[in-house]
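Example record

The entry below shows one chain as it appears in the dataset: sequence first, then C-alpha cells.
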Amino acid sequence: MNTSSNRPGQIDPRGPRFGAAITSVLLLVVLALVLPVADTPAFDGAWWLFVVITALFAWGTLLGPGKHPYGALFKALIRPRLAPPSYLEDQAPPRFAQLVGLIVSAVGITLHVLAVPYGLVIAAAVAFLAAFLNAVFGLCLGCELYNVLLRLRRGRAPAGPSTP
C-alpha cells in the first residue's frame, strides 16, 4: 500500500498491534484470575474485566480501529515518537478482527452466564492467543480470515497448497 495515500479508512498498521498488546495483557490478567480457582470472588472480578474487554471489541467493531481508545492512545503517545509507517493499510481487516474478538468474547460471557464450566476460560484463552500473535508477530488471525472470506466472496479459492 502507498504511504502517500490519504484515503479515508487508511490506518497505521502499528496501531492495531499496539491495541493487541494491551488486549493481550488484559486477557492474561483475566486468565491469571480465572485459572487458579474458578469459583472464588476473584473469578467475578475477572468476569467483569472480560465484559470490559468485550465492550472494547464492540467499540472497535462499530467505530473502527482509528476511533478506538487504544487507537487514540497510539496516536497521542506512541506514533509521534516513531518514524512514519512504511505503508498504510485499510481498516476493514482489523475492524473485522475486532468483530471476531467480539464474537469470541460474547460467546465466553454467554457460556459463563449459562454456568458452562470453563466457557469463559476457553474464550479468554482463544482471544489471548489471537491478540498475542498480532501483538508479537504481526499475525492478525481476524485479518487473515477477512482476506479468505473476501477471496471466497469474489469466487476465488484462497491461495494455498494445491492438491493433485
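Notes for this example: The chain has one domain: 11-153. Residues 11-153 form one domain.
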